[in-house]
Write a structure and sequence with these properties.
Elements lengths: L8 H14 L4 H15 L4 E7 L5 E7 L10 E2 L4 H9 L3 E3 L21 E9 L2 E10 L7 H20 L19 E4 L1 E4 L2 E8 L14 H24 L7 H14 L2 H12 L4 H18 L3 H22 L13 E5 L4 H10 L3 E4 L7 H8 L4 E3 L4 H4 L5 E5 L4 E4 L3 H23 L14 E6 L7 H4 L5 E5 L1 H6 L6 H15 L4 E4 L27 H6 L1 H15 L4 E5 L5 H21 L7 E7 L8 H7 L2 E4 L1 H8 L18 H16 L6 E3 L7 H10 L3 E4 L4 H10 L2 H11 L8 H11 L6
Parallel strand pairs: 9-10, 10-11, 11-12, 15-16, 15-22, 16-17, 17-18, 18-19, 19-20, 20-21
Antiparallel strand pairs: 1-2, 1-6, 2-3, 4-5, 5-6, 7-14, 8-12, 9-13, 13-14
Helix pairs in contact: 1-2, 1-4, 5-6, 5-7, 5-9, 7-8, 8-9, 13-24, 16-18, 18-19, 23-24, 23-25
The structure holds phosphoenolpyruvate and magnesium ion.
Magnesium ion binds next to helix 21.
Length: about 750
C-alpha cells in the first residue's frame, strides 16, 4: 500500500500534538514522541526534526526511523545537504528520489541510505527559520499536495512551540538561536541622539495567535470568509472615501492593495490552511510566514515592496478576526521604548504625547521623516535594526544606544549597569553644556560666534530657550507639508509661522521657503516619478514653475509677521536669475499686501542657500545681490561628490573633512571676505553642528553657524577653547593635503590644544 495520510488527516494529528506538548515530561521526551506520532500519522518510515543552533548550524534534535545515536550529533552547516537547502530557501522540498538531488549529502551516522522519497518543510516564524521538519519513505514516491500541506501545518505549530522555548530543556542550550529569553544585540544606525533604557512596547505587534488548532473546521472556514469579506469592504471604503481625497500614486497604491485583498492565490492558501486543521488566525500567520520567508530571501525588489502590502493586509485580517484595534499609544507602560517595523511621523507624535524613552524602527534612514521628528523631540532613535520587531517581545528589557547604533534586547544586568554609567556620564555632559548656556560663544582670540538652531516643527521651539540659541538660522517650512496627511491651508501656515515668531520673541528667524521634491515628497502630492529626484524638479524650481505656491507661502509669512521684520531664504538656487525671479514674485506679494491693507514686514531680508555647486562659480554675483547667504553643506557636498546623501551604500563614502571640502569652504570664505560680506554668510548643513568640522569653519573665518539645538552646547564649548589664529595656518596648509581626510590631523590638534570636540 502506498504511504498516505491516515484517516482523520492532519486535524486528528494536530490534536494529538497538542496533547503531547501539554504533557509533563522532559523536552527531549516530548520531541521524541512528536516525531514518532507524526511518522505514524503520515505513514512515513522516518520523521526528523532539525533545529538551528548558533551560526545557523542545523542539528538533528529528534528522529523516528533514523539512527537515534545521530541525535544531537548530526550537524549540518548552513546550506549543507537537502535540509540545509530547505532552511536556506525557506521553501519546502518534495523529492521522489532524494539521493539524485545535487544537494544531497550522505551522513553515514544517520543510516539513511535506504530512503528514497523525501519531504521537508521549514519551521518558520516571522522571518526566522528555526529549523526543518522532514519525513522520508523507502519507496520512490511523490508526496501529494495534501501531505505537503499537512507537514507545513505541523511545522507551524512546532515553530510556535520552539519560539516559546518549551521544546528545549532549560540549561541544555548554550546559544541564543533557540531561546527566546536570551540576550540579543542588533546593530542599527543611530538616527536621533541619546541613550534609552526601558522596556519594549511593540508598535503594531503581530496579533498573538493563542489558538492554533481548530475545534470545528467548518465554522473556522466561515469565520475566515467573513473576515476576508469585511476586510475587502474596508479596503473598498478606503478607496471610495471622499474624505481622504485620494489622488495620483496614493490612489494607485490603494488600488493595488484592493487587488491583493482579492488575490485568489492568497485566499486559496488561507482556505487550504484552515482546511488542514488550523484556526483562521493560525492560517493567516502560516501563509504570511511562508510568504515573508520566501520573499525576504529573494532579490526581487518588486516582490519585496509587495510584501509590505501583504504584511499590512495580513495584520488587518488578523484584527478583523480578533476584532481588536492593535496596540495604541494609550496602552503605553512606564519607561516604554517603542519597537516597530515601520512607523509614520504622525504615529510617533502620538506616542510622544504619552511619553516614551526611545524608539527602534527597522525601516528608517537618516533623512526619513521619523528621524527628523525624533530628533526634534529628543527621542533616541536607532533605525535599520533588522529583525528587532521579531526578536523583541512586549515587556522585554531593552537598551537603545543611538551613539553606537546598538540595540540590546534582554541584556544581562551587568550590561544594563554599564549603560546606566554611560547615561550618567551623558547627563553630566549635558549639565556642563547647560552651565554655559547663557554665556556667549567667544573664541579665545575674541571673535563672537553666532550659534543658531535649525528647526521645522512646533516641537523644536522650546529648544530656543533651553539651548541658548541666538536665533533660528534655518526653519525648514516643508516639514509642515511632510508630516500632515493633507496640504496645509493658508490658515495653518499662518498659525505655524506666527507661533515661531512669537516663540522667538525678537530673536532672528530665517524661514526657508518650501524645499519640497527630491527625497521630500508629501504623502498627498506625489507627482511623476523622476530618474534622479535629487537633481529634479524640486525646491526653488517648483516655486518658479508654480508661482502660486511661493506667493501663497509668502502671504502666510507676511500675515504671520504682522509688521515684524522677516528673513526669508530660498533653497537650491543654482544661478542668480532664479534668485531675481523669486524676488520679483515676493515683491508682488508685498504689493498685494499693501493693496489690501495688510501690514507689511518692517524689513524683509532675502537670502539664498549655497547648495548647488554652479553657484560657487559666480559667488560674487549672488554675494552682491542677496541680503545673506547660508551654506547648505548637506546638498552642496552631495552634489560636489556626486554622492546621494540618502543612499546608505555611498552616503559615508567621502569624508566631510577631505582636503577638497576644506578648499571649497575656503573659496566661499575668501570670496565673501574680499567683498566684505563674510559676516552675512552662515553655514546651516550638518557640518555646522559637528564640533570638529565647526572648528574648521571658524578657522576659515565663518562667524555664524546653524545646527540642531542639541549641538549648540558642544560647539560652543569647542569655540570657547579655540584660538582661530593658531588653527588657521594649519587648516590652510591642509587644503593642499593629498590625504583622503585630514580628520586625524585635526583631532591631533584638538588634543594638543585641549579643545573639546566630543558631543
Ligand atoms: C543642506 O542641504 O545642507 C540643508 C541645510 O538643507 P536640507 O538638509 O534641508 O536639504
Ligand atoms: Mg538642502
Amino acid at each position: 500500500m502506498p504511504p498516505q495520510l491516515v484517516a482523520g488527516g492532519p486535524r486528528v494529528l494536530l490534536r494529538r500534538l497538542r496533547e503531547i506538548m501539554a504533557e509533563r515530561q522532559s523536552a527531549q521526551a516530548r520531541l521524541d514522541k512528536l516525531v514518532s506520532v507524526i511518522a505514524s500519522n503520515m505513514v512515513a518510515e522516518v520523521c526528523s526534526i532539525y533545529l538551528r543552533r548558533a551560526g545557523g548550524v542545523l542539528e538533528l534534535f529528534a528522529t523516528e526511523g533514523l539512527n537515534r545515536n545521530a541525535v544531537h550529533r548530526t550537524r549540518l552547516k548552513p546550506g549543507e545537504g537537502l535540509v540545509g537547502l530547505v532552511a536556506q530557501t525557506a521553501a519546502p522540498l518534495n523529492l521522489s528520489n532524494a539521493p539524485e538531488h545535487p544537494s544531497f549529502s550522505y551522513r553515514p551516522e544517520t543510516g539513511e541510505d535506504p530512503y528514497r522519497s523525501f519531504l521537508a518543510v521549514p519551521i518558520v516564524r516571522g522571518e526566522r527559520v528555526f529549523g526543518v521538519l522532514t519525513v522520508q519513505n523507502r519507496t520512490a514516491r511523490h508526496y501529494d499536495e495534501e501531505e505537503e500541506e499537512a507537514l507545513a501545518t505541523i511545522a507551524m505549530v512546532l515553530a510556535e512551540v520552539v519560539a516559546q522555548g518549551t521544546l528545549v530543556d532549560p540549561g541544555e542550550i548554550d546559544d541564543s538561536e533557540l531561546s527566546p529569553t536570551s540576550p540579543v544585540t542588533v546593530q542599527g544606525e543611530g538616527l536621533a541622539e541619546g541613550l534609552a533604557i526601558g522596556s519594549v512596547f511593540l508598535h503594531e505587534p503581530r496579533v498573538r495567535v493563542e489558538r492554533m488548532i481548530a475545534d470545528d473546521p467548518a465554522a473556522e472556514l466561515r469565520r475566515l470568509e467573513e473576515a476576508l469579506e469585511s476586510l475587502r469592504v474596508a479596503v473598498d471604503a478606503m478607496l471610495e472615501s471622499s474624505e481622504l481625497e485620494l489622488t495620483g500614486d496614493t490612489r494607485e497604491v490603494i488600488e493595488a492593495y484592493r487587488l491583493f485583498a482579492n488575490d485568489q492565490g492568497w485566499t486559496q492558501r488561507l482556505m487550504d490552511a484552515v482546511r488542514s486543521g488550523l484556526t483562521a488566525e493560525a492560517a493567516v500567520e502560516r501563509v504570511q510566514d511562508e510568504l515573508r520567508a520566501r520573499i525576504t530571501r529573494s532579490n526581487d525588489v518588486y516582490l519585496r515592496d509587495r510584501l509590505h502590502d501583504f504584511e499590512d493586509l495580513a495584520r488587518r485580517l488578523l484584527r478583523h478576526l480578533s476584532a481588536s484595534d492593535g496596540a495604541t499609544a494609550e496602552a503605553l507602560p512606564e519607561r516604554a521604548v517603542v519597537v516597530a517595523r515601520t512607523m509614520g511621523p504622525a504615529e510617533l507624535l502620538d506616542y510622544a504625547r504619552h511619553g516614551i524613552l526611545g524608539l527602534v524602527v527597522e525601516e528608517a534612514g537618516q533623512s526619513s521623516h521619523i528621524a527628523i521628528v525624533a530628533r526634534s523631540m529628543d527621542i533616541p532613535l536607532v533605525g535599520g535594526a533588522e529583525g528587532v520587531a521579531d526578536i523583541a517581545r512586549g515587556g522585554d528589557s531593552i537598551v537603545v544606544d543611538a551613539e553606537s547604533g546598538e540595540v540590546r534586547i534582554r541584556p544581562p544586568k551587568e550590561i544594563v549597569n554599564a549603560y546606566r554609567g554611560k547615561q550618567a556620564l551623558l547627563a553630566q555632559r549635558v549639565a556642563r553644556f547647560a552651565a554655559i548656556r547663557d554665556q556667549p560663544a567667544i573664541t579665545r582670540d575674541g571673535t563672537r560666534i553666532t550659534l543658531n538652531m535649525n528647526a521645522g516643527l512646533v516641537l523644536d521651539l522650546p529648544h530656543l530657550t533651553d539651548s541658548g540659541a541666538d536665533g533660528i538660522g534655518l526653519f525648514r517650512t516643508e516639514l509642515q507639508f511632510l508630516i500632515g496627511a493633507k496640504m496645509p491651508r493658508l490658515a495653518d501656515q499662518i498659525a505655524l509661522y506666527r507661533q515661531v515668531l512669537d516663540a522667538a520673541g525678537g530673536k532672528p528667524v530665517v524661514f526657508r521657503t518650501l524645499d519640497l521634491g527630491g527625497d521630500k515628497i508629501p504623502s498627498y502630492g506625489r507627482t511623476a516619478r523622476e530618474e534622479n529626484p535629487a537633481l529634479g524638479w524640486r525646491a526653488i524650481r517648483i516655486a518658479l514653475d508654480r508661482p502660486g505656491l511661493l506667493r501663497y507661502q509668502m502671504r502666510a509669512l507676511i500675515m504671520a509677521a504682522q509688521g515684524r521684520p522677516l528673513r526669508v531664504m530660498l533653497p537650491m538656487i543654482a544661478e542668480l536669475r532664479e534668485f531675481e525671479q523669486a524676488r520679483l514674485l515676493i515683491g508682488k506679494e508685498l504689493e498685494r499686501a499693501e493693496r489690501v491693507g495688510i501690514a507689511t514686514p518692517g524689513e524683509l531680508r532675502l537670502g539664498a542657500m549655497i547648495e548647488v555647486p554652479s553657484l560657487l562659480f559666480g559667488l560674487e554675483q549672488i554675494l552682491s545681490n542677496a541680503d545673506f547667504l547660508s551654506v547648505g553643506s548637506n546638498d552642496l557636498l552631495q552634489f560636489a561628490f556626486a554622492c546621494d546623501r540618502t543612499n546608505p551604500k555611498v552616503a559615508r563614502r567621502y569624508d566631510t573633512l577631505a582636503p577638497c571640502v576644506l578648499s571649497l569652504l575656503r573659496h566661499i570664505a575668501t570670496t565673501a571676505n574680499r567683498l566684505n560680506r563674510l559676516t552675512s554668510v552662515s553655514v546651516c548643513g550638518e557640518i555646522a553642528g559637528r564640533p570638529l568640522e565647526a572648528m574648521v569653519l571658524l578657522a576659515l573665518g565663518f562667524t555664524s553657524l546653524s545646527m540642531h539645538a542639541s549641538m549648540i552646547g558642544p560647539v560652543k564649548m569647542m569655540a570657547r577653547a579655540l584660538d582661530t589664529r593658531v588653527l588657521r595656518p594649519l587648516v590652510l596648509e591642509l587644503c593642499g593635503s593629498s590625504d583622503a581626510t585630514v580628520r586625524p590631523l585635526l583631532l591631533d590638534f584638538t588634543e594638543r590644544h585641549g579643545i573639546p570636540v566630543g558631543r
